[in-house]
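Hey L., structure's done. Input below.
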Amino acid sequence: MHTYNEDILAWSMEQAQLIRAGRFDLVDIEHVAEEIEDVGKSEQRELTSRMSVLLAHLLKWQYQPERRGASWERTIRAQRKEIAYHLDDTPSLKPKLLEPRWLDMVWSKALAQATTETGLDCFPETCPWLMDDEILNACWFPET
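Output:
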């Protein structure tokens, strides 16, 4: 048998086989539990990443109207779709969208990205848009 630290892929395949075979006495319970928790964390990171990209592009759309183009619009639409799919697949993530601490962290990431990509330093300190009515609304784009 492989150990968790020596070859995680081989270990994970063995653990899955043991569980399917009902050999729970041989399952590495502690590491299996950690991996299951990591799946949840990965789902949260995916939502955070997509939301920060979306917000950064919405900022660029609003603050650089002269540079608006099909590429930015495609990115905004794609991120909205991916977020919607992600929330449909993992509905327990929806409350994250309403957590002030999470939104503050996502907003900080979006600000950093938008600042780096535009060279501008004029963005609001807190998110000025509503989550459902604006940010995730497929028809909404910010104006200048």
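The first helix runs from residue 8 to 20. The helical segments are 8-20, 29-63, 70-89, 100-118, 131-135.

-- N.
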